[in-house]
Structure formats: C-alpha cells, structure tokens
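Re-run with default settings, no changes from the original entry. Doing this only to confirm the output is reproducible before filing.
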Amino acid sequence: MTTTVTELDTAEVISRFNKAFTDREPELLTDLVAEDCVMVGVQPAPEGARYEGREACLEFWQNLAADRSTTFTPYEVFVAGDRAVIQWRAVFTDGEAVFGTGQETSVLGVNLMRIRAGRITEALGYAKTP
C-alpha cells in the first residue's frame, strides 16, 4: 500500500527542516529523515557528494545546522504534493567553510526535496558556487 502525503504534510516537514537551519536547532531534524533517504550535497562540484541512509543524511544536516560559521536563509519555498523546492542563500564566515577562503562568502542554491509519509526521502542540492 502506498502512503500519499498531502501538501500540508510536506509543507510542515519542509518548514521544520528549514527551521533547524535558521534557528540552529539540529535536533529538529531527528524525526524528519527516512531510513532510505538519499541526499546529494552541492559540493564537491560538479556532482556533489552522495549520502545514503538515515544516519549519513542526518549526521551531515545536523553538523551543518550546528555550524556557527554558516547562516542559512530560505527565501522561497514551493510545495507540490510530495515534492518541495527550497531556494536559499548560505553565508559562510569561516576560513575553511564549504565555499569560503577566509572572508564572508555568499552562495545561492536550491534543494529539490521529496517527502514520503512525513519523512525526507530525497534531497538534491544545487548551488551557484563562487
């Protein structure tokens, strides 16, 4: 039997996901990641690193959400059924941050998300790198 996720369910998951990053609350991510989650990060370009499984995805996201040298700001979110698109800006201020080299660096990007039964099953990240 296939579980259908409503737009409201998907919107709630994405809202909590974004809040984990904007409020630096990595614990909010704990119940949002499916066991079979696949995430492809924006780095290293051009393909990005692939993370498979709940533990790998959760560890990556929780570390990023807790990182005080990074500020994440979603500026548009689009939800349609079990899919969502998050347009975001990340600002890095640490010398060895993902995209930075010692000065503040800003990056625009999008995440293409898929939700099933109230959990993230897929997250594909794309960014305009400096």
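Residues 1-7 have pLDDT under 50 and may be disordered. The first strand starts at residue 33 and ends at 40.
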